[in-house]
# Entry
Amino acid sequence: MKLKPGFIFVTSLLFLVTSRTELSEGHSFGVDYKNNCFLKDGAPFQYISGSIHYSRIPRVYWKDRLLKMYMAGLNAIQTYVPWNYHEPTPGIYNFSGDRDLEHFLDLANQTGLLVILRPGPYICAEWEMGGLPAWLLHKPNIILRSADPDYLQAVDSWLAVLLPKMKPWLYSNGGNIISVQVENEYGSYFACDYNYLRHLHTLFQLFLEDTFLFTTDGNTDSEMACGTLEGLYATIDFGTDTNITKAFQRQRRFEPSGPLVNSEFYTGWLDHWGDNHAQVGLEKVSQMLDDMLTLGASVNMYMFEGGTNFGYWNGADYDTGFRPVVTSYDYDAPLSEAGDPTDKLLAIKNVISKFRAVPEGPMPPATPKYAYGFVTLKKVGNITALLDTLSPQGPLRSQYPLTFEEIKQYYGYVLYRTKLPRTLEDKTPLISPLNGVHDRGYVLVNGVFQGLLERETILVLNVTGKEGDTLDILVENMGRVNFGPYINDLKGLVSNLYLGQDILSDWLIYSLDIDGAIATGWPHAQPQHTDPTASSQDCKGPVFYMGTLEPTGLAWDTFLKLRGWTKGQVWINGVNLGRYWPQKGPQQTMYVPGPLLSTSQPNNITVLELEEVPSDPRVLFMDRAQLNRSTERS
# Structure
């Protein structure tokens, strides 16, 4: 919905602020610099927190996850607010359903958990573009995370909506937000623009008044130097491979007195496609947590539960090259991707019990899982034959290619179409000389799959054909860069393609609204006419498949395995589960939350396979995850 300031909204906000202020007399949170500790309601306080991202967990499971965190002994949680999750297009805001941040805060409050809020505007988090909305890139020369006026104008508008919503939830107003981070790990960004930090500091003070504001940065002098600012309390991040004494000595150089704080103590790590599944031993985590708490430090464990990069929300790193993050954000965390307690969680609870009383009673159990078995899928059609359904508005015409951002489609897939300018009797190179395919291009001639062009990996593909043949390139956005200097990450065909010596031109560009079509019931709601004589060649390249999981009377969590499939996207009952790529790994299964499933109606499965379908097009619903190639995690 579009938020429109008005009498009713302002009156409601004033009522909430007044009500919570009346309830909160004596509620205070701050720093005792003399005794190097936090003060909560005038008494020394040490927080033991865990990171959880509401945007990566279905709303129906928020309470379950928060209760498990509370029962583990935590007294606080830390959460990011992804800007692009709430403002998908300029001025259009969504705080409903799975985006209902205030409901999440309320559940945490009911559970007895304080909140450390990290509203950005940049968050990193291995999230698409680090939480920044891709529509910022409409300004081609914008300098993100800086005092660039175009960027600041967008930031100001966003925070003028978000921060007033947060004000009633501040601890001083009777809520549970004890502290708010300004920006995120800014010292790791090349700009090092103190005017930008000062602007944010002023803005946060304006909306949140006397709230405790802080920064957090990586464990190097350069990061701490560029990421800290007078008036913002400086904290530090580090994991189990770090010398605690030296790390906190570094924090002390930038914050000479006050509490020691590790704002991101890494309980695990993220996975990129092609990696092995990251794992950090519970012994290392529990011993280091013990050591930090013994020092009196406040600690936030990142992550306590990672959750899932549903849809297109995964980010990407650009260090040794472009490396997109996998769909699972399990993070080898104390609570698994599905929210299940692990041995690591029990070890952490045991450590915490040495320093504060943990709640009595049993840990809530894992959610029930069910192996629903195999489902056979049938072909719907090649993507090139479905453009009337997937792009009902028709194509844009352009002499040269336009990016996703230029046509204002930010995620998913766009199809670029032109004609072969001449007959190619011999194999002729289709070339992306300036690495202009962001991120993967699936190439077809007259609907027949030819192969791939891929960012930094495959810049040349040989093709043949006749003059006037249709050349299609389906381009997939694999997730924008979320960290470092390359977050201005345009998608699509970002430069010209060559066919031999010829620059290809006269493009038809189809913006594909696959999610919109599926949300209206396609393809299951339409009569299907499959061709039983279709050859295996017809099943190469971008092809849609569909099937149904018949109701069992259960709606339990499950894990979808696409063994033998190559790479693509999956939807169940209209919900985009994310990407699969079992051939690349390490992730082999996709988490399917039970509440997505119907207990009484057929459950619709839609698969977009981008490269090649197995000869037996089945999928398997299992009762356990496989996140490290063939290694099963129970």
About this structure: Confidence is low (pLDDT under 50) at residues 1-24. Residues 7 and 137 are 34 Å apart (CA to CA).
